[in-house]
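Weekly structure sync, notes
Attendees: PL (lead), two postdocs, one rotation student
Agenda item 3: pending single-chain targets
PL asked that the sequence for the first pending target be pasted directly into the notes so everyone works from the same version. It is reproduced below exactly as submitted, 614 residues in total.
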Amino acid sequence: MLADKDFRPETRNLTPETKFDSHSSKNLTQVTGRPERGSKMTLRSDEWFKRRDEMGLRHRSVLSTLGYDPRQSAGKPIIGICNPASELNNCEIGLDELAPIVKRGVIESGGIPLEFGTMPLGAELLKPSDLLYRNLVSMEIEETVRAYPIDGLVLLCGCDKTTPAQLMAAASCDIPSIQLSAGPKAAGTWRGEPVSSGTDMWRHWDDYRSGKLTDDEWEQLEHCISCSYGACNEMGSSSTMTAMSEVLGMMPAGTSTLPANDTRRRIAAENCGRRIVDQVREDLRPSDLLTRDAFENAIRVLHAIGGSTNAVLHLIAIAGRRGIHLPLSLFDDLALTTPVLVNLKPSGKYLLEDLHRAGGVPAVMKEIEPQLHTDCRTVAGGALAESLASAACFNREVIKSADDPIQATGALAILTGNLAPAGAVLKVSAADKNLLEHTGPALVFESYEEMLAGMDRDDLDVTPDTVLLMRNTGPRGAPGMPEWGSLPIPRKLLQAGVRDVVRISDARMSGTSYGTVVLHVAPESAAGGPLAIVQTGDRIRLSVNERKLELMLPDAEIERRLAQWTPPASTHFRGYMRLFIDHVLQADRGCDLDFLCPDSEAALPFVQPQVGRS
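Predicted structure, written out during the meeting:
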């Protein structure tokens, strides 16, 4: 899967002068937008470095300070290496080891690598929500590319929201781009058993809250959860989104599941550096890869791998940057004919390194190849079919065959009904099958803080039939739609042996979480959705078979309550958070900002600044 043929076309060893032919007759200060496709390759960076006036001299002198002789740099593409590594985010610390290797590959293929950073999106330390800042980082990358002489992008990613933020930016910029992840961390062990970095933590947290674990045992577990740098090592949001990048053709085949400390990830880094230079030469852009067919492939693989519910938001947002509308109904339609094949936590037993040894994402795609659009292109330059030609499964315990799936239909279900007019998401593969058809009384929490204060009360009025409902935790309400949706099971129920109840909110949940948790309810309560008017004691009906989520009240009563509802007051009056609240779209639209989503590719052109005198 990491063979040279995937990364190094035969044309790689052409000289820079052969690869790149810069325009010379056009007035450089009059050029706007992306370089036009044509028989001659035009570099964006020529706008800065090819000019013969005093500004050209100043621009070229910058290269001199970096150690590049301007006389030897003519016609070489500038490759921006986006490296978000930060000590604020342990998932991506390993990117600092990969960036120099990427640079080596760029230089070997005749390019000039220039590294830049972005805001870290560490899902663990960043509050209240990393999703809140996903859009900001996508804008940061887009504006960096717009304003600087960058011809191609290597996007180094790792944590949950870094990957989609970079893909959203690449979709908007539409200059040649390739993505490489930091990889999943090594598994810890506790009591002789492998311990995942998220799913097992949630499971043992319930044990601790119910008195099954002592304080000393809980402290011992703390030292086993994160035993190396890297992303979560189950099928959480991070691993789901790097898999999605691979399926979309933006990440080299077979690399998304490589462990963070695997030497093959370093080889992949060098190959990515080489490959991006050739992508610039070939003018292979995200718009060539991020097609509707590619997104349909991604949705099918999302179901097959038991992927995170967060991926629904991210795929919609990435597609939206290309003017491609992915309705929630499409996710459900494809679920009906796509089986769950991957036996990974939280839906199964194994971890990411097991999936990689079993054949990785290509092996999963091979199982459902007849259902995929295999003519979609990838960063390797060819069609997806070429990447799958040698794919094979080496462990049927980890990757089931399509004839013997874990679950006959997809991992996720899309619900609609009078409680979620624009839709909601439930991860069926990680839910209690006995609760997929359920009717019970609501216990309503107005906020996350109120919920936390109540869950361990011995007098909490709750039974196994109760439907826990939390509001004001959506895109606007929190703001930023934090991963608060996997409400903890009330302690009194845990002590009685209950491990799951139906939970509903307009929030998200970690991809490492599990349970019968209905998420992303849209419209959210803070926007006046029906979630806002549910009262404790109202009966709620969940039917996965019918794909329904319903408040069991007459329509007239629902309308009466909605008419009396008033929006909650916001305490955020300035800065990016204010901009986010004013412009964020609802969950069914991917929670992107409205002004970043074109109706078509031509509706939001990527405009290059005038490189005039200053």
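Discussion points:
- Residues 415-564 form a domain with the Glucose Oxidase; domain 1 fold (CATH 3.50.30.80).
- The chain has a mean pLDDT of 90.
Action: rotation student to compare against the earlier draft before next sync.
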